[in-house]
Amino acid sequence: AQSVTQPDIHITVSEGASLELRCNYSYGATPYLFWYVQSPGQGLQLLLKYFSGDTLVQGIKGFEAEFKRSQSSFNLRKPSVHWSDAAEYFCAVGVGDYKLSFGAGTTVTVRA
Amino acid sequence: NAGVMQNPRHLVRRRGQEARLRCSPMKGHSHVYWYRQLPEEGLKFMVYLQKENIIDESGMPKERFSAEFPKEGPSILRIQQVVRGDSAAYFCASSPAEYATNEKLFFGSGTQLSVL
Does residue A18 register a pLDDT over 90? Predict the structure, then answer.
């Protein structure tokens, strides 16, 4: 069965520092992979997605993610975080045509 | 262009009551999906609907839960005789009319259901 693991429940990072959020997946075929962000009181917003091709994917808000098949990982990175990046981040794998299987999420706190 | 609208944002029910959660998809979207997020878990797919049709309800509990998406009006997720284990965040998503896809899902802000 498809599954997504986000090992870090909570990460605290200083403003201006780099950020990396881990995501590991279990999926039989070539996965469709997604990162979503949920800011307080907001809906989930798509940051980026990987379907095929270049394994380094650029997204919105300065985020990028790298697909590594050998490690079954799709880690999200940002070189320099801003206070507005404080949110909950979800990794997801596409299942079939329309379903998503989500990880439990990582909450990011940004300290001044 | 309003996004996916869910209401209420917070819903408190006592055990045994009914909960009705509403979702208005984005304009022009005719595919609606409901997901549930239990505490400290990821979102789990519940049901996929098109106008007046349930396409896939494989993630719905067999009892007490139902969903509809009428020709007019919002999609409704209905939970009868709620129990404490139903306490969760319920998210709705929609996708454009051309196809059902996980490539272009737009999510609402969710409804937090608390059962006392």
Answer: yes
